[in-house]
Amino acid sequence: MSAKAFVLCVSGPSGSGKTSLCDRLADELDFAYRSVSVTTRKQRSREVSGRDYVFVSPEDFQRMKSENHFVETAEVFGNWYGTPREPLEKALDQGGIIVMDIDTVGAMNVKAAFSDRCVTVFIEPPSMEELKNRLEQRKQNDSKDLEKRLEEAKRELLEVDRYDFSIINRDFDQAYAELKSFVLKQRLERP
After folding, report:
1. What gap in Å lies between CA 162 and CA 180, rounded to an integer?
2. Structural domain includes residue 76
3. Which residues pair with 82 in a beta bridge?
4. Can you tell me the distance from the alpha carbon of 104 to that of 81, in angstroms, rounded to the nearest whole number?
5. What local confidence, expressed as pLDDT, does residue 161 receive?
6. Does pLDDT of 131 surpass 70?
């Protein structure tokens, strides 16, 4: 394993921009590999299995879990999500970073599993009102689901102090520049 290899866990509330930031980072940096989570969630119209998530049945998920296929698992909004172990270890062995957008519980579990090979970043919305606007503009959630996501966001925002770095995503390009700069600095400064 290269000394500059690490797992990058990026967390933040739904609508904070974490997935888009992670996607851009993995697209632009040749040493960054995108982690693809396994989920029991229903596939959305624009999603591609194997690129956005690996979509499986609840039964297959539980089988994979029992076979120790995952570094961590979590139930979020009634669906199961898991981080496959093999791609993380492969990326670390190749000296790259594995980029994950992951909930706060999952991020702390990955940090516990990979300790000094894990770096955590929290993406904050500029305000709860802006977060609500972003979620409404996505038109993916009914009012009940939107309310649950906003309540979860309040809980997640209490976790920011547990992270190595945080970024307020007022402007996507500026937030991306901060994330990229932080990652490049970590690549240079890590033992």
Report:
1. 20
2. yes
3. 38, 73
4. 13
5. 96
6. yes
Instruction: For residue 43, give the amino acid letter.
Output: Q
Domain around 166: 6-189
Task: Please give the pLDDT value at position 3.
Answer: 45
> Is residue 139 pLDDT above 90, yes or no?
no
Average pLDDT in the 53-63 region? 96
The two three-digit tokens of residue 76, written as one number: 């979020």
Total domain count, the chain: 1
Q: What is the SS3 string spanning 47-105?
A: CCECCCEEECCHHHHHHHHHCCCEEEEEEECCEEEEEEHHHHHHHHHCCCEEEEECCHH
Q: List the Cα angle 85/113/72 in 5-degree steps.
A: 50
User: Does some domain include residue 1?
Assistant: no
CATH number for 180: 3.40.50.300
Cα 28 from chain centre: 17
Identify whether 19 is part of a domain: yes
Q: What is this structure's pTM?
A: 0.85
> How much helix, strand and coil, in percent to the nearest 5, is found in the chain?
45, 25, 30
**Percent of the chain having pLDDT more than 70?**
96
Residue whose C-alpha is closest to residue 107's, from 7, 3, 29, 9:
9
Q: How far is residue 124's CA from residue 37's CA, in Å, rounded to a whole number?
A: 22
